[in-house]
């Protein structure tokens, strides 16, 4: 047991009042998880195998798919454990580690979407210097900065969780561990843990979304200066998939934030559903969006499965 910890585990919660239906509820969750693993795994394999996709835009897409895979694999074991086996108990260390990876990967996803916006900005506003600006080395550096920002920024609020005493209760409100859930159960001064995440959300989610918005204003300005209508449409078409992914991610972030901030009278089930939408909808939709809207991905998937198919 960790210092000052009043007990060594927490109890996760599925859908209160619907425990008898947990097995049925688990069926759509299982298929969503399988779809997320298959979709994002296929994208990563495709980008690795297809040399036509060895470009910065697709490297960033592979980072996005890997982040979605990591987030899904972080929540999947405990969610399905609660719904299938009614296995609610989770140790302190496992709980805090899960919270760390959930929040870190959420910030990483925001950073990857920002990097993808930068890629589109350079491709459209400065196309002649695209290959010299976004070299493989620079793409790797951007990826490392995004990872470090996500994983280092979450250390300060997560570390104190190991040392707080927990004397109120040990029942969490979700089937996975979140910092804001755990901190409510602590019997200590949690001022830092309540204020720091707010600052972090502003500096990462809000700032990233504003920079993405500004980049698209500049992209639109550049596109409108193109004389040919066909060229304008072609330039904008390369941005559609990314815009859709950005909207899916930030709309779910805003929705979840509004529910937590102003939804005191909203039924708890709505809070639960919004949290699952936030963690599952973007990883489910991102590969679908890119598969539907990007011809190179479509032809790559077709080629991948036809070349790997066993001939009779």
From TrEMBL:
UniProt keyword annotations, A-Z: Cell membrane, G-protein coupled receptor, Membrane, Olfaction, Receptor, Sensory transduction, Transducer, Transmembrane, Transmembrane helix
Transmembrane keyword on record: yes
Keyword Transmembrane helix: yes
GO biological process: cellular response to lipid
InterPro entries: GPCR_Rhodpsn (IPR000276), GPCR_Rhodpsn_7TM (IPR017452), Olfact_rcpt (IPR000725), OR51/52/56-like (IPR050402)
Main location: membrane
Name of the protein in its database record: Olfactory receptor
Protein species of origin: Myotis davidii (David's myotis)
Lineage of producing organism: Eukaryota, Metazoa, Chordata, Craniata, Vertebrata
